[in-house]
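Box 3.1 A note on notation
Throughout this textbook, protein chains are presented in two layers. The first layer is the amino acid sequence; the second is a token string describing backbone geometry. Keep the layers aligned when reading.
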Amino acid sequence: MELQKELKGQTVVILANSFNPSIFNQYWLVSKEFIPEGDIQPASVITPGITQIMTPGFHMLVVPDQLQFNYTGDEKFPFQDSLRKTLKPMMEQLKEVPYRAVGLNYVWFVSEPEKSMPALSREMFCIDGAPLYRAFQAEDARFGSYLSRDFGTFRLKLDVKPVTIQENESKKEFLQFAFNFHADFDPQHGYRQLDESLNKWNECLKEASRIMDLL
């Protein structure tokens, strides 16, 4: 049986020396037309030290040294549209922020219904005969992997490990394939390099998808 693969997470993480979380308040977001007023949900939190904005299409968390922009998974609100209409214009408005780095992140869950996680992860990642793996010959052992290489202006990192997810009343195991495309910035050109990196979102997603298709 073929592997079942599902893209479960898409996130942009932006690192900076000095975000001001309170700037990302409802008045600023709506008046600048970054977010329609009706999209900001009551669960949103705005304080001097942390801001969390909840919308149907994305969740945004801002603390002094980091901004996380997460896709909710709702197909009615494509993540690329949120990047184009909300994240990129916000960053353009805040060009003076000393941006340090960005991570473009994509997470797949992989399973095979007819195989247990110990069997599947052993088949994919155990190296028979290697000294380290000889210490993990138990039937309940699980395996993963870490790989990295350059990809254009990014360092591509792939972390694979078994995870357990609560689904309704039961728990289910998956192999989690977490792709991180990381780029560090020159402090003098932080905004320009951030904008260039965000413009490569689809390119990085295509490369991660190509790698997943090899399975």
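The chain has a mean pLDDT of 94. The first helix runs from residue 26 to 31.
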